[in-house]
Amino acid sequence: MTKFLLSLHVLAAVLTVGPVTVAASMFPRTLRRVHAEPGDPDALSTLRTLHRICRVYATIGLAVPVFGFATASSLGVLRSPWLITAIVLTGIAAANLALLILPAQDAVLTAVTRALEPAAAAEANPDARPEAAPVAVPLPVPGPQAAAQLAMLTGVFNLLWATVTVLMIIRPGSTTGA
């Protein structure tokens, strides 16, 4: 049963945390692209998709600690220092994602969408108001600052997960063998 639980834990981590780390890492670069090319519908669509991936896979990723606790209990290592450290770091990473990264992505995406809606409407119906034709100007939302902050938060998130992964593999002081 332990090997089965461990397999589920590792699969859940790979299949959920992996996409979140990649999508969250791509979000700031895509946000910079949206600001550099405000008329590019692909950039905005990509930004929306990356945010959706982060939200959905973060929710599904709740299975990782569930299977992790079941595996640790089955192995009898719930009180091991390496596991407690990994649990604390996982909690910090999850809080970073849930309380900082996802809300920031949502706020930026909302602001960018609102800023581009008039341009999209004018582009779709240029005869309605010719003076409202879209022009390539910087968006009225914090572009470089928001992208830099999201890049920093995502970097911290990724480093925390990398550390947890190393702890799970090396298991310093473990008596269960590595």
Major beta sheet summary? none
N→C terminal distance:
19 Å
Uncertain parts: 128-140
Q: What number is the mean pLDDT?
A: 85
Helix content: over 70%
Number of strands: 0
**Count of runs of 4 or more consecutive helical residues:** 5
Note the run of SSEs as H and E. HHHHH
Computed structural class: mainly alpha
- The proportion of residues in beta strands is under 5%
Tell me the overall shape. elongated
Rg over C-alpha atoms, rounded to the nearest angstrom:
21 Å
Entry keywords:
mainly alpha; 5 helices; elongated
Give your account of this protein's structure.
- The protein has helices spanning 2-36, 41-60, 63-75, 81-124, 144-170.
- The model is unreliable at 128-140 (pLDDT under 50).
- Helix 2 (41-60) runs antiparallel to helix 4 (81-124).
- The two termini are 19 Å apart.
- 25% of the residues are buried.
- By secondary structure, it is mainly α.
- The protein contains five helices and no strands.
